[in-house]
Amino acid sequence: MKKTLVLLAALLIAPIELMSAVSAADARPNVLFIALDDLNDWVGCLGGHPQALTPNIDRLAKSGVLFTNAHCAAPSCNPSRTAIMTGLAPHRSGLYSNRQKMRDVLPDAELLPKYFSRHGYWSAGSGKILHYFIDANSWDDYFPAKETEDPFPPHIAWGKRPKSLPRGGDWQYVETDWWPFDVSDEEFGGDWHVTQWVGEQLQKPRSAPFFLACGIYRPHEPWFVPKKYFDLFPLDKLQMPPGLKENDLDDVPLASQRIGRNRYLKHIQEQGQWRQGIQAYLASIAYADVMVGRVLDALDRSPHRDNTIVVLWSDHGWHLGEKEHWQKFTGWRVCTRIPLIIRVPGGVPGLPAGTKPRSVCSRPVSLLSLFPTLTELAGLPAKNDNDGPSLVPLLRNPEADWSHVALTHLEHPENYAISTDQWRYIHYHDGGEELYDIAADRYEWTNLAAKPEHSARLATMRSLAPRENKR
Description:
By secondary structure, the chain is α/β, with parallel strands linked by helices. It contains 16 helices and 18 strands. The protein has helices spanning about 1-25, 55-65, 75-85, 90-95, 100-105, 110-120, 185-190, 190-205, 225-230, 255-260, 265-270, 275-300, 335, 370-380, 390-395, 455-465, and strands at about 30-35, 65, 70, 120-125, 140-145, 180, 210-215, 225, 310-315, 320, 325, 340-345, 360, 365, 405-410, 415-420, 425, 435.
Protein backbone atom coordinates (compact mmCIF):
# COMPACT_ATOMS: atom_id res chain seq x y z
CA MET A 1 0.00 0.00 0.00
CA LYS A 2 2.79 2.36 0.98
CA LYS A 3 4.66 1.65 -2.29
CA THR A 4 1.47 2.32 -4.26
CA LEU A 5 0.99 5.70 -2.57
CA VAL A 6 4.61 6.66 -3.26
CA LEU A 7 4.20 5.66 -6.91
CA LEU A 8 0.98 7.66 -7.24
CA ALA A 9 2.65 10.69 -5.65
CA ALA A 10 5.59 10.41 -8.05
CA LEU A 11 3.22 10.20 -11.01
CA LEU A 12 1.40 13.30 -9.83
CA ILE A 13 4.61 15.27 -9.14
CA ALA A 14 6.38 14.37 -12.40
CA PRO A 15 4.01 16.32 -14.70
CA ILE A 16 4.26 19.31 -12.35
CA GLU A 17 8.07 19.19 -12.46
CA LEU A 18 7.97 18.79 -16.24
CA MET A 19 5.62 21.74 -16.57
CA SER A 20 7.89 23.80 -14.32
CA ALA A 21 10.92 22.90 -16.43
CA VAL A 22 9.09 23.79 -19.63
CA SER A 23 7.86 27.02 -18.05
CA ALA A 24 11.41 27.91 -16.98
CA ALA A 25 12.68 27.20 -20.49
CA ASP A 26 9.92 29.32 -21.99
CA ALA A 27 10.88 32.17 -19.63
CA ARG A 28 14.48 32.23 -20.79
CA PRO A 29 15.14 35.42 -22.73
CA ASN A 30 16.11 35.62 -26.36
CA VAL A 31 19.25 37.52 -27.37
CA LEU A 32 19.51 39.83 -30.37
CA PHE A 33 23.21 40.54 -30.90
CA ILE A 34 23.84 43.46 -33.30
CA ALA A 35 27.38 44.20 -34.47
CA LEU A 36 28.60 47.14 -36.53
CA ASP A 37 32.04 47.20 -38.12
CA ASP A 38 34.60 50.00 -37.60
CA LEU A 39 32.15 52.40 -35.93
CA ASN A 40 33.81 54.90 -33.60
CA ASP A 41 31.94 57.34 -31.34
CA TRP A 42 30.41 59.25 -34.29
CA VAL A 43 26.99 58.38 -32.93
CA GLY A 44 24.43 60.96 -31.86
CA CYS A 45 24.14 59.73 -28.28
CA LEU A 46 27.95 59.68 -27.87
CA GLY A 47 28.56 63.08 -29.44
CA GLY A 48 31.62 62.07 -31.46
CA HIS A 49 30.77 64.20 -34.50
CA PRO A 50 28.10 66.94 -34.49
CA GLN A 51 26.73 65.92 -37.89
CA ALA A 52 26.45 62.16 -37.32
CA LEU A 53 22.91 60.90 -38.09
CA THR A 54 22.03 57.83 -36.04
CA PRO A 55 18.38 58.13 -34.93
CA ASN A 56 17.88 54.36 -34.65
CA ILE A 57 20.95 53.70 -32.53
CA ASP A 58 19.94 56.69 -30.43
CA ARG A 59 16.42 55.36 -29.85
CA LEU A 60 17.86 52.03 -28.74
CA ALA A 61 20.11 53.90 -26.31
CA LYS A 62 17.08 55.71 -24.90
CA SER A 63 15.36 52.40 -24.24
CA GLY A 64 18.23 50.74 -22.34
CA VAL A 65 21.70 51.37 -20.91
CA LEU A 66 24.25 53.38 -22.91
CA PHE A 67 27.87 52.76 -21.91
CA THR A 68 29.82 55.94 -22.64
CA ASN A 69 33.21 54.57 -21.56
CA ALA A 70 33.20 51.22 -23.37
CA HIS A 71 36.33 49.96 -25.11
CA CYS A 72 37.33 47.18 -27.46
CA ALA A 73 39.73 44.42 -26.41
CA ALA A 74 41.82 45.14 -29.52
CA PRO A 75 41.71 47.92 -32.18
CA SER A 76 41.35 45.56 -35.16
CA CYS A 77 38.61 43.19 -36.31
CA ASN A 78 40.04 39.72 -35.74
CA PRO A 79 41.39 40.02 -32.18
CA SER A 80 38.46 42.15 -31.07
CA ARG A 81 35.81 39.78 -32.38
CA THR A 82 37.71 36.73 -31.18
CA ALA A 83 37.85 38.20 -27.67
CA ILE A 84 34.10 38.90 -27.72
CA MET A 85 33.08 35.52 -29.05
CA THR A 86 35.44 33.42 -26.87
CA GLY A 87 35.49 35.60 -23.77
CA LEU A 88 39.31 35.38 -23.80
CA ALA A 89 41.51 38.49 -23.69
CA PRO A 90 44.28 38.79 -26.31
CA HIS A 91 47.01 38.65 -23.68
CA ARG A 92 45.68 35.25 -22.59
CA SER A 93 44.71 33.78 -25.97
CA GLY A 94 47.74 35.05 -27.88
CA LEU A 95 45.58 36.35 -30.74
CA TYR A 96 46.56 40.00 -31.32
CA SER A 97 46.45 40.53 -35.09
CA ASN A 98 44.28 40.36 -38.19
CA ARG A 99 46.99 38.24 -39.76
CA GLN A 100 46.39 35.37 -37.35
CA LYS A 101 43.65 32.78 -37.81
CA MET A 102 41.38 32.16 -34.86
CA ARG A 103 41.19 28.40 -35.23
CA ASP A 104 44.97 28.11 -35.65
CA VAL A 105 45.48 29.89 -32.34
CA LEU A 106 42.38 28.59 -30.50
CA PRO A 107 41.40 25.27 -32.10
CA ASP A 108 39.18 24.17 -29.19
CA ALA A 109 37.66 27.44 -28.01
CA GLU A 110 33.89 27.37 -27.56
CA LEU A 111 32.22 30.44 -29.02
CA LEU A 112 29.28 32.35 -27.61
CA PRO A 113 26.61 30.96 -29.99
CA LYS A 114 27.78 27.38 -29.42
CA TYR A 115 27.67 27.89 -25.65
CA PHE A 116 24.08 29.11 -25.88
CA SER A 117 23.16 26.30 -28.27
CA ARG A 118 24.61 23.71 -25.91
CA HIS A 119 22.32 25.12 -23.20
CA GLY A 120 19.09 24.80 -25.17
CA TYR A 121 19.13 27.86 -27.43
CA TRP A 122 18.72 28.06 -31.20
CA SER A 123 21.81 29.98 -32.31
CA ALA A 124 21.84 31.67 -35.70
CA GLY A 125 23.48 34.59 -37.40
CA SER A 126 24.01 36.58 -40.55
CA GLY A 127 26.73 38.86 -41.86
CA LYS A 128 30.13 39.56 -40.36
CA ILE A 129 30.37 38.37 -36.77
CA LEU A 130 33.84 36.80 -36.93
CA HIS A 131 36.73 38.01 -39.10
CA TYR A 132 35.75 36.93 -42.64
CA PHE A 133 34.62 33.42 -41.73
CA ILE A 134 31.57 31.88 -40.08
CA ASP A 135 32.91 28.96 -38.00
CA ALA A 136 30.07 26.69 -39.13
CA ASN A 137 30.19 24.30 -36.17
CA SER A 138 29.36 27.14 -33.78
CA TRP A 139 25.94 27.90 -35.31
CA ASP A 140 22.64 26.09 -35.83
CA ASP A 141 21.84 28.24 -38.85
CA TYR A 142 23.40 31.09 -40.81
CA PHE A 143 22.87 33.32 -43.81
CA PRO A 144 24.60 32.93 -46.19
CA ALA A 145 24.80 29.16 -45.64
CA LYS A 146 27.29 28.39 -42.89
CA GLU A 147 28.98 25.66 -44.94
CA THR A 148 30.32 28.31 -47.33
CA GLU A 149 32.30 29.99 -44.54
CA ASP A 150 31.56 33.25 -46.37
CA PRO A 151 29.45 35.58 -44.21
CA PHE A 152 28.76 38.15 -46.93
CA PRO A 153 25.54 38.15 -49.01
CA PRO A 154 25.50 39.48 -52.59
CA HIS A 155 25.75 43.19 -53.30
CA ILE A 156 25.68 45.44 -56.34
CA ALA A 157 28.68 45.06 -58.64
CA TRP A 158 31.30 47.66 -57.76
CA GLY A 159 32.46 48.10 -61.36
CA LYS A 160 35.82 49.58 -62.23
CA ARG A 161 37.98 50.45 -59.23
CA PRO A 162 39.33 52.49 -57.58
CA LYS A 163 36.42 54.89 -57.72
CA SER A 164 37.51 57.91 -55.68
CA LEU A 165 40.91 57.32 -54.09
CA PRO A 166 43.76 56.11 -56.34
CA ARG A 167 46.04 53.56 -54.72
CA GLY A 168 49.28 55.02 -53.49
CA GLY A 169 51.06 51.67 -53.65
CA ASP A 170 50.92 48.09 -52.42
CA TRP A 171 50.85 49.40 -48.85
CA GLN A 172 47.34 50.81 -49.35
CA TYR A 173 44.44 48.55 -48.46
CA VAL A 174 42.52 47.98 -51.68
CA GLU A 175 39.19 48.69 -49.95
CA THR A 176 40.19 52.21 -48.86
CA ASP A 177 37.85 53.94 -51.28
CA TRP A 178 34.40 55.59 -51.38
CA TRP A 179 31.58 56.14 -53.84
CA PRO A 180 27.83 56.95 -53.94
CA PHE A 181 25.76 54.39 -55.88
CA ASP A 182 22.51 55.82 -57.23
CA VAL A 183 20.39 52.83 -56.23
CA SER A 184 17.91 51.86 -53.52
CA ASP A 185 18.97 50.04 -50.35
CA GLU A 186 17.50 46.79 -51.67
CA GLU A 187 19.27 47.15 -55.00
CA PHE A 188 22.51 47.89 -53.18
CA GLY A 189 22.23 44.54 -51.34
CA GLY A 190 24.81 43.50 -48.75
CA ASP A 191 23.62 44.60 -45.33
CA TRP A 192 20.07 44.94 -46.65
CA HIS A 193 20.00 41.16 -47.19
CA VAL A 194 21.48 40.54 -43.73
CA THR A 195 18.85 42.65 -42.00
CA GLN A 196 16.10 41.16 -44.15
CA TRP A 197 17.04 37.62 -43.12
CA VAL A 198 17.39 38.56 -39.46
CA GLY A 199 14.02 40.32 -39.56
CA GLU A 200 12.40 37.23 -41.04
CA GLN A 201 13.80 35.05 -38.26
CA LEU A 202 12.39 37.42 -35.67
CA GLN A 203 8.86 36.97 -37.02
CA LYS A 204 8.84 33.21 -36.50
CA PRO A 205 7.42 31.61 -33.35
CA ARG A 206 10.02 29.41 -31.67
CA SER A 207 9.84 26.39 -29.38
CA ALA A 208 13.23 27.32 -27.90
CA PRO A 209 14.79 30.68 -27.04
CA PHE A 210 17.19 32.10 -29.61
CA PHE A 211 20.60 33.72 -29.82
CA LEU A 212 20.41 35.70 -33.05
CA ALA A 213 23.45 37.64 -34.31
CA CYS A 214 23.22 40.39 -36.92
CA GLY A 215 26.53 41.52 -38.43
CA ILE A 216 26.16 44.86 -40.21
CA TYR A 217 29.30 45.47 -42.28
CA ARG A 218 29.15 49.23 -42.69
CA PRO A 219 30.81 51.54 -41.88
CA HIS A 220 33.68 49.19 -42.78
CA GLU A 221 35.53 50.06 -45.98
CA PRO A 222 34.92 50.45 -48.83
CA TRP A 223 32.60 53.32 -48.04
CA PHE A 224 30.25 52.42 -50.85
CA VAL A 225 26.60 53.11 -49.99
CA PRO A 226 23.55 54.44 -51.84
CA LYS A 227 23.86 58.06 -52.98
CA LYS A 228 21.01 59.31 -50.81
CA TYR A 229 23.23 58.86 -47.73
CA PHE A 230 26.02 60.97 -49.25
CA ASP A 231 23.44 63.63 -50.03
CA LEU A 232 22.77 64.02 -46.30
CA PHE A 233 26.23 65.53 -45.87
CA PRO A 234 26.93 68.25 -48.49
CA LEU A 235 30.65 68.90 -48.80
CA ASP A 236 30.25 72.68 -48.47
CA LYS A 237 28.61 72.23 -45.06
CA LEU A 238 30.78 69.38 -43.80
CA GLN A 239 32.52 69.77 -40.45
CA MET A 240 35.97 68.28 -39.94
CA PRO A 241 36.54 65.86 -37.02
CA PRO A 242 36.47 67.79 -33.72
CA GLY A 243 39.50 65.89 -32.41
CA LEU A 244 41.95 67.28 -34.95
CA LYS A 245 45.08 69.07 -33.73
CA GLU A 246 48.08 70.07 -35.77
CA ASN A 247 51.35 68.35 -34.75
CA ASP A 248 49.43 66.33 -32.18
CA LEU A 249 52.10 63.63 -31.98
CA ASP A 250 54.98 65.89 -30.99
CA ASP A 251 54.68 64.92 -27.29
CA VAL A 252 54.31 61.13 -27.66
CA PRO A 253 56.97 58.37 -27.71
CA LEU A 254 58.68 57.28 -30.92
CA ALA A 255 56.81 53.95 -31.01
CA SER A 256 53.54 55.88 -30.84
CA GLN A 257 54.59 58.22 -33.64
CA ARG A 258 55.43 55.26 -35.85
CA ILE A 259 51.97 53.81 -35.33
CA GLY A 260 50.23 57.16 -35.77
CA ARG A 261 51.94 58.68 -38.79
CA ASN A 262 51.03 56.13 -41.42
CA ARG A 263 50.89 56.91 -45.14
CA TYR A 264 47.14 57.04 -45.51
CA LEU A 265 46.38 60.56 -44.30
CA LYS A 266 49.16 62.16 -46.35
CA HIS A 267 48.05 60.29 -49.47
CA ILE A 268 44.39 61.24 -48.95
CA GLN A 269 45.37 64.88 -48.46
CA GLU A 270 47.56 64.87 -51.58
CA GLN A 271 44.64 63.50 -53.60
CA GLY A 272 42.31 66.21 -52.27
CA GLN A 273 40.00 63.57 -50.79
CA TRP A 274 40.04 64.26 -47.05
CA ARG A 275 36.65 65.97 -46.86
CA GLN A 276 35.20 63.43 -49.29
CA GLY A 277 36.43 60.61 -47.07
CA ILE A 278 34.80 62.15 -44.01
CA GLN A 279 31.57 62.59 -45.98
CA ALA A 280 31.72 58.94 -47.03
CA TYR A 281 32.28 57.72 -43.47
CA LEU A 282 29.33 59.77 -42.19
CA ALA A 283 27.23 58.44 -45.09
CA SER A 284 28.21 54.87 -44.27
CA ILE A 285 27.27 55.41 -40.62
CA ALA A 286 23.88 56.81 -41.63
CA TYR A 287 23.32 53.78 -43.86
CA ALA A 288 24.33 51.37 -41.09
CA ASP A 289 21.94 53.13 -38.72
CA VAL A 290 19.05 52.60 -41.16
CA MET A 291 19.95 48.90 -41.22
CA VAL A 292 19.85 48.86 -37.41
CA GLY A 293 16.42 50.47 -37.62
CA ARG A 294 15.18 47.72 -39.91
CA VAL A 295 16.15 45.11 -37.34
CA LEU A 296 14.70 47.01 -34.38
CA ASP A 297 11.43 47.56 -36.28
CA ALA A 298 11.28 43.85 -37.09
CA LEU A 299 11.73 43.03 -33.40
CA ASP A 300 8.97 45.47 -32.45
CA ARG A 301 6.60 43.68 -34.88
CA SER A 302 7.59 40.24 -33.65
CA PRO A 303 6.12 37.91 -31.03
CA HIS A 304 9.45 38.18 -29.17
CA ARG A 305 9.54 41.91 -28.56
CA ASP A 306 8.90 41.63 -24.80
CA ASN A 307 11.33 38.79 -24.09
CA THR A 308 14.46 39.71 -26.02
CA ILE A 309 17.71 41.16 -24.75
CA VAL A 310 19.19 43.56 -27.30
CA VAL A 311 22.94 44.21 -27.44
CA LEU A 312 24.53 46.62 -29.92
CA TRP A 313 28.29 47.01 -30.24
CA SER A 314 31.09 47.89 -32.63
CA ASP A 315 34.38 46.01 -32.76
CA HIS A 316 36.62 49.13 -32.62
CA GLY A 317 36.80 52.78 -33.64
CA TRP A 318 38.41 54.62 -36.54
CA HIS A 319 40.68 57.63 -37.15
CA LEU A 320 39.91 60.21 -39.84
CA GLY A 321 42.93 62.42 -39.23
CA GLU A 322 42.88 62.59 -35.44
CA LYS A 323 46.35 61.97 -33.95
CA GLU A 324 47.70 62.49 -37.51
CA HIS A 325 46.34 59.01 -38.34
CA TRP A 326 43.89 57.42 -40.76
CA GLN A 327 42.54 53.90 -40.12
CA LYS A 328 42.64 51.86 -36.90
CA PHE A 329 45.29 49.79 -35.00
CA THR A 330 46.06 52.44 -32.33
CA GLY A 331 45.62 52.67 -28.58
CA TRP A 332 44.10 56.13 -28.54
CA ARG A 333 40.55 56.67 -27.41
CA VAL A 334 39.23 57.52 -30.89
CA CYS A 335 40.12 53.95 -31.86
CA THR A 336 39.37 52.01 -28.65
CA ARG A 337 36.12 53.69 -27.59
CA ILE A 338 33.04 52.18 -29.16
CA PRO A 339 29.24 52.33 -28.87
CA LEU A 340 27.79 49.73 -26.50
CA ILE A 341 24.09 49.57 -25.68
CA ILE A 342 22.27 46.85 -23.74
CA ARG A 343 18.51 46.63 -23.23
CA VAL A 344 17.08 43.95 -20.96
CA PRO A 345 13.33 43.28 -20.61
CA GLY A 346 11.73 42.52 -17.28
CA GLY A 347 11.51 38.94 -16.07
CA VAL A 348 15.01 37.92 -17.17
CA PRO A 349 16.60 35.38 -14.77
CA GLY A 350 19.75 37.42 -14.18
CA LEU A 351 17.97 40.79 -13.94
CA PRO A 352 14.26 40.37 -13.14
CA ALA A 353 13.59 44.10 -13.09
CA GLY A 354 15.19 44.60 -16.50
CA THR A 355 17.08 47.74 -17.42
CA LYS A 356 15.78 51.25 -16.86
CA PRO A 357 15.24 53.33 -20.03
CA ARG A 358 17.56 56.28 -20.65
CA SER A 359 20.23 54.90 -18.34
CA VAL A 360 23.81 56.06 -18.92
CA CYS A 361 26.88 54.37 -17.45
CA SER A 362 30.31 56.04 -17.49
CA ARG A 363 32.23 53.19 -15.83
CA PRO A 364 35.13 51.75 -17.87
CA VAL A 365 33.92 48.53 -19.48
CA SER A 366 35.23 46.14 -22.11
CA LEU A 367 33.56 44.12 -24.85
CA LEU A 368 35.18 41.12 -23.14
CA SER A 369 32.30 41.39 -20.68
CA LEU A 370 29.60 40.54 -23.21
CA PHE A 371 30.01 36.75 -22.86
CA PRO A 372 29.68 36.58 -19.05
CA THR A 373 26.99 39.27 -19.05
CA LEU A 374 24.72 37.37 -21.44
CA THR A 375 25.16 34.02 -19.71
CA GLU A 376 24.28 35.60 -16.37
CA LEU A 377 21.26 37.41 -17.78
CA ALA A 378 19.98 34.21 -19.39
CA GLY A 379 20.48 32.20 -16.21
CA LEU A 380 23.09 29.93 -17.82
CA PRO A 381 26.10 28.50 -15.98
CA ALA A 382 29.11 30.82 -16.08
CA LYS A 383 31.85 29.85 -18.53
CA ASN A 384 34.81 29.39 -16.23
CA ASP A 385 37.50 30.83 -18.50
CA ASN A 386 35.85 34.19 -19.26
CA ASP A 387 38.24 37.05 -18.64
CA GLY A 388 35.83 39.96 -18.40
CA PRO A 389 33.52 40.72 -15.43
CA SER A 390 29.78 40.55 -15.96
CA LEU A 391 28.13 43.92 -16.53
CA VAL A 392 24.94 42.89 -14.71
CA PRO A 393 25.78 45.01 -11.61
CA LEU A 394 26.01 48.07 -13.89
CA LEU A 395 22.83 47.13 -15.75
CA ARG A 396 21.14 47.02 -12.38
CA ASN A 397 22.71 50.30 -11.23
CA PRO A 398 24.81 52.25 -13.75
CA GLU A 399 26.49 54.13 -10.90
CA ALA A 400 27.43 51.03 -8.90
CA ASP A 401 30.95 50.70 -7.50
CA TRP A 402 33.20 49.24 -10.18
CA SER A 403 36.80 48.26 -9.51
CA HIS A 404 37.55 47.08 -13.05
CA VAL A 405 39.40 48.78 -15.90
CA ALA A 406 39.13 48.33 -19.66
CA LEU A 407 42.24 46.87 -21.28
CA THR A 408 42.94 47.18 -25.02
CA HIS A 409 45.81 45.27 -26.67
CA LEU A 410 47.57 46.36 -29.85
CA GLU A 411 49.38 43.93 -32.19
CA HIS A 412 52.55 43.71 -30.06
CA PRO A 413 51.93 41.96 -26.72
CA GLU A 414 53.61 44.80 -24.79
CA ASN A 415 51.59 47.53 -26.51
CA TYR A 416 48.33 48.17 -24.64
CA ALA A 417 45.99 50.87 -23.35
CA ILE A 418 44.21 51.03 -20.01
CA SER A 419 41.02 53.03 -19.43
CA THR A 420 39.66 53.98 -16.01
CA ASP A 421 36.84 56.36 -15.03
CA GLN A 422 38.94 59.45 -15.74
CA TRP A 423 42.37 58.38 -16.94
CA ARG A 424 43.96 56.63 -19.91
CA TYR A 425 47.40 55.05 -20.00
CA ILE A 426 49.17 53.67 -23.09
CA HIS A 427 52.30 51.51 -22.85
CA TYR A 428 54.65 50.47 -25.67
CA HIS A 429 57.07 47.56 -25.85
CA ASP A 430 60.10 49.90 -25.89
CA GLY A 431 59.04 51.49 -22.59
CA GLY A 432 57.29 54.52 -24.09
CA GLU A 433 54.26 55.79 -22.20
CA GLU A 434 51.30 58.14 -22.56
CA LEU A 435 48.98 59.43 -19.85
CA TYR A 436 45.81 61.45 -20.38
CA ASP A 437 43.24 63.06 -18.10
CA ILE A 438 40.06 62.45 -20.10
CA ALA A 439 37.95 64.69 -17.91
CA ALA A 440 40.08 67.67 -18.95
CA ASP A 441 41.40 66.40 -22.29
CA ARG A 442 38.77 64.44 -24.18
CA TYR A 443 40.84 64.16 -27.36
CA GLU A 444 44.10 63.16 -25.67
CA TRP A 445 45.99 66.21 -26.95
CA THR A 446 48.36 66.56 -23.96
CA ASN A 447 50.54 63.64 -22.88
CA LEU A 448 51.12 63.95 -19.12
CA ALA A 449 53.44 60.95 -18.73
CA ALA A 450 56.59 63.05 -18.37
CA LYS A 451 55.07 65.60 -15.97
CA PRO A 452 56.49 65.20 -12.41
CA GLU A 453 53.19 66.23 -10.84
CA HIS A 454 51.55 63.15 -12.38
CA SER A 455 54.16 60.58 -11.30
CA ALA A 456 51.86 59.08 -8.65
CA ARG A 457 49.03 58.69 -11.16
CA LEU A 458 51.43 57.14 -13.65
CA ALA A 459 52.54 54.60 -11.05
CA THR A 460 48.92 53.74 -10.31
CA MET A 461 48.15 53.16 -13.96
CA ARG A 462 51.26 51.01 -14.39
CA SER A 463 50.06 48.83 -11.52
CA LEU A 464 46.89 47.99 -13.48
CA ALA A 465 48.82 46.42 -16.37
CA PRO A 466 48.49 42.68 -17.09
CA ARG A 467 51.11 40.60 -15.31
CA GLU A 468 51.69 38.28 -18.24
CA ASN A 469 51.27 38.72 -21.98
CA LYS A 470 51.12 35.56 -24.03
CA ARG A 471 53.40 35.64 -27.04
